[in-house]
Amino acid sequence: MKDLLSINQLSEEDITHIYEIAKDYKKKYKNNQKKFTDLKGYSVLLPFFENSTRTRTSFELAGKILSADTININSSQSSVKKGENLYDTIKTLEAMNSDFIVIRHYMSGAPHIVAKEIKSRIINAGDGMNEHPSQALIDGFTILEEKGEIKNLKIVIIGDILHSRVARSDIKLFKKLGAEVTLCAPITMIPRYAQTLGADYITTNIEDALKDKDVAIFLRIQLERQSKVYFTSLNEYSIKYGLNQERLNLLKEDAVIMHPGPVNRGIEIQSELVYGNRSLILEQVENGLFIRKAIYKFLLEKTGG
Ligand code: CP
User: What is the spatial distance between Cα 137 and Cα 155, in angstroms, rounded to a whole number?
Assistant: First the structure.
C-alpha cells in the first residue's frame, strides 16, 4: 500500500496499528517532546482544491513536526486557474520529487485517479462526497480514548448523509471495529442507495435515533454541495434535527457528541452545547494532529521508508 485513499484499504489490524502510532506520538507530546525526525528529508505537498481549516493545517503541521519540508498549494492561486488540468498539476508536483501529496478535491475519486498514475504517496484529504479517511480515523481514535472500546457501541450519525464523505468513511471504520451504526436524516438527505453504505439502521426520526446511543455524530449541512432544496429553511432543519438539551437527554447518560467541523452553530447543534461537557469536538481537532502524523509514518512503513 503506497496511498491512503479509502477506509476500505485498511484492515482492523492496520487501524489498530495507526492508533498505536498516534497514541505514542500523543504520549510523547504530553511529555513535552514536540519535534521528531521521522520525515526528515521527505517533502509533503498539499494541493487543496476545496477550502479547509482542520485537515490542511493539521496535515501541514504534522509534517513540519516530523521534520518534512511542506508546501501548501491553494488551487485558487495556482496554475489550475489558468486551466491546467488535475493530471498535469499532480504530474508537475511529482516531477518536483514529492514524497507525499495530500490532496483535497471536489470530485469524488480524484485522488484514486492520480494515485494510479504517479509514484508519490497520495493521501486523500477528502474527495467530493466519497470519503474522508483521515477524519474517520480521528473519529474512531477519539471514541476509543473516551470509551475504551468501539466494539458493540451504539453510534448514530445525524444530518446531511447524502453529501457527507465523513459519513461514508465513518460507517466503514465503525463497522470494521464492531460498532452498531444508525443513520438519521430528513428523507431528502438519505441517499437512495443508503442500504449499501453499510449502516445497521436508517431512520428519519431523530428522537428514535438518539435513544440509548453511546455516541452521536452530527454532520454539517453542506450548502455548497446542494443544487436542490432539501428542506424548507435552515430554521426548520434546526427545529426538526438540531441537537438541543432535550434531545441530548435521550442519549445514554455517559454518551458523547461529536462533529467533524466546521459546525453551523445553532443549526446542527445548539450553540451552548457545541463545546459543552458532553462534546468531544475539540478533542477531535487535537487528535487530528496525532492521527495525521501516524498516517505519514504508517505509509512510510508500508513503502519501506
Ligand atoms: N473536518 C474537516 O474536514 O474540516 P476542514 O474542512 O476544516 O478540513
Answer: 15
